[in-house]
Amino acid sequence: MGRNNPGCNILDPGLLENAVVNLSAVNEQATKLVNSRCLKNEFEAAWLLKAITCIDLTTLAGDDTSSNVTRLCRKAARPLPEDLLNYLGFEYDADCPIRTAAVCVYPSKVEAAVATLHMLGLSDKINVASVATGFPCGQTPLFTRLEEIKWAVKQGAKEIDIVIDRSLVLTGQWERLYNEIKEMRDACGDAHMKAILAAGELTNLSNVYKASTIAMMAGADFIKTSTGKESINATIPIGIVMCRAIADYYKKTNFKVGLKPAGGIKTSNDAINWLVMIKEILGDAWLTPELFRIGASGLLSDLEHRLYQIVTEKIGEPYEFSMG
Ligand SMILES: O=C[C@H](O)COP(=O)(O)O
């Protein structure tokens, strides 16, 4: 990962001047993006492999145990069956680029993830990301939210996915939102910080733009759409607005902040839609795990099925695939 976002020393209202969002234009752009492509198989396979390398492979369930986190890490290390990977021209050797970017877990499971990736010799290739700050709601006192970040970093998390306090957006307390996120940034130390906006709970796209910009001004390295627990998660219109906020922030500060859509991204088609959006709005420079992640618990198996279908020209039987 590159250097952390230095953010802005104060909340700069000038950066919020593009916060008026034309809803019908955004919806029109979203429709065009999802209908605009027709990929040949070999290009589709390349996009799908790219998607794998951008996944934060996630388990955030109440019944998570150390052993399912260990299994998740093994899947992150070898996301495809070996024969399928070989067909696609890669091998699971030390230089194999086909791994997920990170695993994403609750703070109490960071230790198990760090130990497994260390045992696999992949600590420097796959990061451990931890959610924090009272995920998914962020409704605990700031003091405990900050302590939770510090604890997760101490356990070995290299990336921290914080959630913002949505009530500060809904009541227009922008300065306080900025100050809270800035404190969270400081608590992360050297770890990268992804700010989860829970965009589906922010009422409108103008609030999504403002919250995105304030998170970046406060030092977020990534802005992330959702926790995966809201009723509206990562939608294409939300993604478009967040990409525009990232592009505007880059124009004004020359710093590239990443985007992490998360929540409900389950199919190969979904993954390609997001990759195409990044390419069209932010450009190729963002098409890298340094600047683009997909947070997903269930996407990988569909990518595997689709790649199998492309390679063999048949739909695989369920028994031909691993159990996730
Ligand atoms: O941060 C990642 C999300 O919680 C994953 O959501 P998902 O389970 O809908 O893929």
TrEMBL record:
* Catalytic residues identified in the record: 224 (schiff-base intermediate with acetaldehyde), 260 (proton donor/acceptor)
Q: Which UniProt keywords apply?
A: Lyase, Schiff base
Q: EC number(s) on record?
A: 4.1.2.4
Q: Is Lyase tagged as a keyword?
A: yes
A GO BP entry is: carbohydrate catabolic process
Reaction(s) catalysed by this chain's protein:
2-deoxy-D-ribose 5-phosphate = D-glyceraldehyde 3-phosphate + acetaldehyde
A Pfam family cross-referenced in the UniProt record is DeoC
Whether Lyase counts among this entry's keywords is: yes
Gene Ontology annotations for the cellular component aspect, listed alphabetically: cytoplasm
According to the UniProt entry, its GO molecular function terms are:
deoxyribose-phosphate aldolase activity
* Pathways per UniProt: Carbohydrate degradation; 2-deoxy-D-ribose 1-phosphate degradation; D-glyceraldehyde 3-phosphate and acetaldehyde from 2-deoxy-alpha-D-ribose 1-phosphate: step 2/2
Q: Which NCBIfam families match?
A: deoC
Give the protein family: Belongs to the DeoC/FbaB aldolase family. DeoC type 2 subfamily.
Query: What is the official name of this protein in its record?
Result: deoxyribose-phosphate aldolase
Q: What is the lineage of its organism?
A: Eukaryota, Metazoa, Ecdysozoa, Arthropoda, Hexapoda
